[in-house]
């Protein structure tokens, strides 16, 4: 091939490569993706030589003859140390950039792959000593089963552009922050945006009801409740039928809206409270039930609080059916909604006045206006 030079390579070696991030290493996907997208080398100074057309390639005789093969080194940092510090630089840095994604498999056990087309920049503290180097092609020649691999030729097809780079002019830059520094919050936000689901629904914390009920509603709004259908998405397989009715797949919408028990219980609560829509069709409408009372701030919060207690009672009943085959009547479930909501509202009533139980059960709206 025109424009190639041969160099004898010994894979037994004077040079040991240490990969900071190797393509074939077993990394958690998010960490690998984050590293590739956010950490970059900034080259502050560089000079170019462009050979004239048809000219012979620039002499790169400063390459050591005994040189370790690069193993799958596409677009990665490799740190090298030389055993013979008197003859070669003790430490230098390789920045390898791909021109294609091809790779060849080698049959000997020490190195399994070699990048077919790559660009390699070699730098050290004295750029005049270790000049170039852009290598855009590397391919083992005559690697057959009959050939001994202690010594073999590697052809180096040189790029038309040569670069000098000073190791002292290199620095890390964090691309997720405009300043180039590394704030933990930028990584946290990146990971959140990558692995957490996006939803148009937002849950606003209800201060009248305890935290675990708010968290339950938040998980429902983002589709993160461990229903049977959601568990099957992460490989936990079992019958996907609703644990309460056993009729349809257990989704959030079915469990709290379409299931016969949930539907009947909600109609009872709507009849008791009188301001709630008894025929809610979707989970997002249920979570946004307080919108019908817009302008009555205190009633909005209480209205939503009763809905949260309803979700909690249904979810607990579902878990009871799933784990112990227990049963409760509709009247018992309705009583739990009334009693739990009264208890939690009384505990957080800023006026210090408790709701009267009989009045709460008979006319909750009037009782709220009187004591809240």
Tell me what the structure shows:
This protein has 372 residues and is of the alpha+beta class. It folds into two domains: 4-174, no CATH class; 211-371, no CATH class. The chain has helices at 29-38, 184-195, 211-221, 228-233, 252-258, 260-273, 283-287, 297-324, 330-347, 357-362, 364-371; strands spanning 4-9, 15-19, 39-43, 47-49, 77-82, 91-98, 103-105, 113-115, 118-123, 135-140, 152-158, 162-164, 170-174. The strands form five sheets. It has a four-stranded antiparallel sheet with strand order 2-5-6-9, with no helix packed on it. The protein has a three-stranded antiparallel sheet with strand order 1-11-10, with no helix packed on it. A two-stranded antiparallel sheet has the order 3-13. A hairpin with an 8-residue loop joins strand 5 and strand 6 (91-98). It is globular. The relative contact order is 0.09. InterPro entries: RVT-Znf. Residues 193-266 form the Reverse transcriptase zinc-binding domain. It comes from Lactuca saligna. Pfam families: zf-RVT. This is Reverse transcriptase zinc-binding domain-containing protein.
